[in-house]
Amino acid sequence: MTTRRIVQILADGQPGESQEVRGWVRTRRDSKAGLSFVELNDGSCLSSLQLVVPGDLDGWDELVARVTTGASLKAVGTLKESPGQGQRVELGVESLEVIGEADADNYPLQKKRHSFEFLREIAHLRPRTNTFGAIARIRNVLSAAIHRFFQDRGFVYVHTPIITTSDCEGAGEMFQVTTLNLQRLAQVQTEIDYGQDFFGRPASLTVSGQLEAEIYATSVGDCYTFGPTFRAENSNTSRHLAEFWMIEPEMPFYELPDNMDLAESFIRSVVGEVLERCSEDMEFFNKRIDDTVLATLANITDNEFIRLPYTEAVEILEGAGREWEYPVEWGRDLQSEHERFLTEEHFGQPVILFDYPRTIKPFYMRCNDDGKTVRAMDVLVPRVGEIIGGSQREDRLDVLLERITECGMDPEEYWWYVDLRRYGSVPHSGFGLGFERLVQLVTGMSNIRDCIPFPRTPKSADF
Ligand code: ATP
Ligand code: MN
């Protein structure tokens, strides 16, 4: 007797095989003819396995009341060809054991549809729903595809620190890390002496592993990070989390066009892999969540991305004849509404914007000769807007020092970063891709809070 997961049974289980299965009850339906039909799901795939329980099964009279939605059980039986639609095989049950009951009066996930807002409040149970089970599997396949993409190209996976004493983005959106007793400090009202703190100086959770990745890129060569990132931005949007996962490749000897080529083939490759490996889940998203998602993804895998300087994008937006909520003007950052207009309406496909004004970009981006722009690039995709932010890095010592000062930062604090420009400096580039924005793109889910198992946002860090 084998115990297999339902995904395998549905794929290659043969009629006549005896089979043990374990999982959680989705529904039970009793027929007039005395049979009971139990939909059993074990999370291995979207589909459930149909268990057919004969009314005269040993002990069924007592058992039946305990086989309710949410209960866990083990069943043994023989696979049969299924006369029903949508499944190849079903299990004719010969014995059944309820492992854990789920009180039908209290189980929050009864069969009816629930709003995503409600499901966020029961994040401990929502992965048992079709939608959140599918998202968990998509995240898994995407993660593996991302590692495969880089590993196949010889990139080294580097683990950059989570606790840091430098602010990469210079945006001041960092969570402080401290062991000081804030309660006591508040009572005695003294100046804070960070010398007494764990690291002897202020420390924070990282907003990006880029600066450390640059160290490894200029020693082991092409490399990437894939880890958690934290930003205390107080923006309650459908695209921002306080804790998210970021993929950050960093490549020596890459200039901006090489960086764009890599970003484009990266997105197309991982999207292609999900379409291939997760067809059942992807059909579900297209049917239940967003009926344009498969077309959007096909458009991404089949077409080259548009490449356009920021300055030309601003001209397009100014000439669009639209009322924007946020004004468009050269020198201002683009907002989600502008990004989405460009990629969804104007071009109808992904767009890479480059050469942004230096005043709106961080210190480490390479300055162009025009004195006004830097070699930045953002990749914009339909429905999500910015999915990647990247740049060619400033590799000239004097220019970098000037920029650090211009951005109001202290070059001393970044001595090790500056050192890389002193010893064997090379042109190099990299980018950051927000993993949950990729999940948003792939699944068609409208809120990023539903694209990570346990979202952290302002005033919310339950579970
Ligand atoms: P945005 O303008 O959308 O806030 P950003 O310019 O701050 O993004 P970068 O600093 O370039 O973003 O970070 C690289 C990538 O990380 C972004 O392209 C995006 O995919 C992702 N990202 C940034 N901030 C968040 C966040 N708060 N939650 C989820 N993903 C994020
Ligand atoms: Mn941001």
Question: What does this 3D model show about the protein?
Answer:
- There is one protein chain.
- The protein has helices at residues 6-12, 60-63, 116-121, 130-152, 182-188, 210-217, 256-277, 279-288, 293-302, 310-318, 336-346, 397-406, 415-419, 435-443, and strands at residues 2-3, 18-30, 35-41, 49-54, 72-81, 89-100, 156-157, 163-164, 176-177, 203-205, 223-230, 243-252, 306-309, 351-357, 373-381, 385-392, 428-434.
- The chain is α+β, with helices and mostly antiparallel strands and 463 residues long.
- Strand 5 (72-81) and strand 6 (89-100) form a beta hairpin.
- Helix 4 packs across helix 7 (256-277) and helix 7 (256-277) packs across helix 9 (293-302).
- The model has no long low-confidence stretch (mean pLDDT 95).
- The structure holds adenosine-5'-triphosphate and manganese (II) ion.
- Residues 169, 231, 233, 239-241, 244, 246, 386-389, 432-434, 436-437 line the site of adenosine-5'-triphosphate (ATP).
